[in-house]
Specification:
Elements: H1 6-34, H2 47-55, H3 75-85, H4 109-117, H5 137-147, H6 164-172, H7 189-205
């Protein structure tokens, strides 16, 4: 007759219970991520920022359940996101075009015209706005700083390019790191979400941010 150590039985049963609890916990953790509002952002580096803006009703995706995080954002789209997040009160939309390429029957007409009236965004030398044109990181940063009313903290220098005060401010306050982009780098929808969330955080705290990525982490792994 085989002799079984009761202590080992108790220990093994206890370990099984612990493993079962851990399994349930892990499943719940993964479920919270897997069943997020957007099915294509689960592994995006900027997932948390996108989720924050979705929760706040700022973004709803390009189609049901789809955010398209890697697509480049347009000038019209970023202004809508910024103005809504910063809770900017827009003036009444004009009954005429504020730019020749911004028709009054388009969804972006009130956002572009309002941003232009408030000095948040300007058009090009051609007189057009380019609502569907892509946006560089530095242009997005300038739009964002103006939308959140942070221009007063900028240090201007007439001898330097227009973007230097915006870049220096963002770099100094850990909002956006200089090494992450070049002058011509275009910004994606996902990166825009992170920039907006960090600008909002700075506006609330009025202090230098703790720069750390909120990258995609599931159970402690990238």
């Amino acid at each position: 007759m085989m002799h079984v150590n009761k202590f080992l039985l108790i220990k093994n049963n206890s370990m099984k219970k612990i493993l079962s609890l851990c399994t349930v916990y892990c499943v719940l953790c993964i479920s919270n991520t897997a069943f997020a509002a957007f099915t294509d952002t689960q592994y995006s580096w900027y997932r948390d920022a996108i989720a924050a803006l979705e929760t706040d009703g700022i973004v709803s995706g390009s189609s049901p359940g789809i955010f398209n995080p890697d697509l480049l954002i347009s000038r019209a789209e970023i202004l809508k996101m910024l103005l809504k997040t910063a809770d900017v009160k827009l003036p009444d939309a004009p009954t005429e075009k504020c730019f020749p390429d911004v028709a009054i029957d388009t969804w972006y007409h009130p956002f572009i015209c309002g941003a232009h009236t408030l000095g948040i965004a300007n058009g090009f030398e051609s007189g057009k706005f380019g609502p569907n044109d892509t946006v560089t990181v530095l242009e997005a940063l300038a739009f964002g700083i103006r939308a959140f009313g942070l221009e007063n903290v900028l240090t201007s220098d007439a001898d330097k390019p227009w973007y230097i005060p915006f870049q220096d401010f963002a770099n100094t306050n850990n909002i956006l790191q200089t090494h992450g982009h070049t002058l011509g780098t275009k910004i994606s929808r996902a990166k825009t979400a992170e920039l907006i969330v960090r600008l909002r955080e700075y506006k609330v705290k009025n202090a230098t941010l703790n720069y750390k990525s909120n990258g995609c982490a599931v159970n402690g792994n990238l």
